[in-house]
Amino acid sequence: MRVYENKSGKLMLIPKFEQYMEYMLEVILLKLPRTEKFSIGTEMKNLMYTTYRNIMYLNKVDIKKKMYYLNLIDCDLNVQRTLIRIMYKYKWIDEHKFDVLIKQHLHEIGAIVGGLIKYYAKNPKEEV
Fold it and tell me: Fewest beta carbons less than 10 Å away: which of 2, 88, 102, 114?
């Protein structure tokens, strides 16, 4: 079995990111103030979908392009962390939701992405 795949051969990053997106959409973005739904909410949704698309590409591209997509995903995750901090700073989300997003969802996703980056940096010609 490959390191970052589950028993069905699906990249572990995919279900983790899907759970994160569901939480963001159901719990956070729908409950933002109306004025923010159409600014930071829209930006966050677009960024999540772009990140998800890059994760899907990661599953399909050849080994040479994996580092490119991993770096895109890592950058997008950093921007999402920043937007979540802004939401917390302006009290659009409470401390519990902030902790769930940062410490659970994004921390786990970031750890997987970081592990993949380290792996491909050391083994650029191998599949995980």
Answer: 2
CA dihedral 24, 38, 81, 118 (to 10 degrees): 80
Report field, pTM of the whole predicted structure over 0.85: yes
pLDDT tens per residue, range 34-62: 888 889 999 999 999 999 999 999 989 98
- For residues 51 and 76, the answer to whether their CB atoms sit within 8 Å is yes
Eight-state DSSP code of residue 5: B
Q: How far apart are CA 29 and CA 1, in angstroms?
A: 37
Phi, psi at 11, each rounded to 5°: -60, 125
Position of tokens 């410490």? 103
Domain spans of the chain, in order of start: 15-122
Q: In the chain, where do the E strands start and end?
A: none
Least Cα distance to 26 among 113, 110, 105, 107 occurs for 105
